[in-house]
Predict the structure.
Amino acid sequence: MKRGDRQMEHVTIEYLPPEEIEKRSFEIITEELIKRGIHIPKEEELITKRVIHTSADFDYAKTLCYSEGAVKILKELIKNGADIVTDTNMALAGINKKALARFGGEAHCFMADEEIALLAKQRNVTRAAVSMEKAAAIEKPVVFAIGNAPTALIKLYEMMETPFGDTLMPNMPYGRHKEKMDWKPAFIIGVPVGFVNVEAAKELILKTDIPYIINRGRKGGSNIAAAICNAILYQIS
Amino acid sequence: MKRGDRQMEHVTIEYLPPEEIEKRSFEIITEELIKRGIHIPKEEELITKRVIHTSADFDYAKTLCYSEGAVKILKELIKNGADIVTDTNMALAGINKKALARFGGEAHCFMADEEIALLAKQRNVTRAAVSMEKAAAIEKPVVFAIGNAPTALIKLYEMMETPFGDTLMPNMPYGRHKEKMDWKPAFIIGVPVGFVNVEAAKELILKTDIPYIINRGRKGGSNIAAAICNAILYQIS
């Protein structure tokens, strides 16, 4: 036991001042990555480690995929005031919105909007899909941080690849016009979680030319989406 | 491919109407638990499966610990209007507050309160610890849903076991008086995540006589805390 540590019942509580806890956590993560023989490219290190910090799951060191230069591109986007759109209110709660606002960006989640719920019901599609259509009408670069719904990724793919050919989205309600046929997300953080279409939706995005950070496989979540956004924000703040 | 499924690029997207996606996910989880030879007691099934649904991580089937009759106790507490206090705003965002309100309960997170930040700084303890002191002053049964900070669990333990003997909490600011020396949480959902004191803090609570749902080990998170609360709410709504 170090000085300040306390023996409580049968366990030892390590005493650390609050500001040291995160630092110590990252040291442990670094040590364990070395022990496991996992090397993370320098550029990706702070993001992958923050994801592990958020999940205590070292699987992410193997499944997180970064497109060429992704971290640099994402930093530049945020620095230049890009907005973030997420598909979950939990991720919205977790993203450091004050840090984002310093660069002129705003974070949005349209999932709880009544209008979105109504449109989704009428069309028998998910609210996440309709949310993406609403987000596509934002008149500035948008970083998509998808932590829950694979249907959000599928919708993004459809809007990029088949802008008017898709029967799943007749009557685009948010005013996308012909001149927007070349609409593309500025960046996709693709970390939905689950069992239905999650892996397939991620594979779809991996084949596009959109810069991305994607967690291959079933795992992900709103906490992972927020952790990635915050890891970027902390690096540029 | 079934009718409605779509071949996009090299992957197949299974078509399901929105209301079927969750149902299908739970079927897949059930099938995989059987394949893995994991049996979950009936009472715990809907909670453990929702946690796996939220994380795509089958480890939880092995590490989630329930005290005797925990699910029944938690249901009764919520039905009788207990409040929920959580240590993360992400969990607060995720908990179905409308469903909780139908029973008279309210969900709280004090982490972003300025007063909490100030007290934590003055005393060089975490905001989570001070939040627990504030929660202990709530004049009704409280379910604690801890998804982030082990220091929240340690503080709960201290308040139960050594109400006035702990130098870490001089000057309890929220008016706990002598008649409250027998203060106890009504229930602890203990799923903090991380690397410093997380396992030890959970072991502390496992030794108390407070009813609990705890995830042994390092894993957990605000998403897990919210999933457990919602799994209970969906069963009684």
Q: What stands out?
A: Chain A touches chain B through 53 residues (CB under 8 Å).
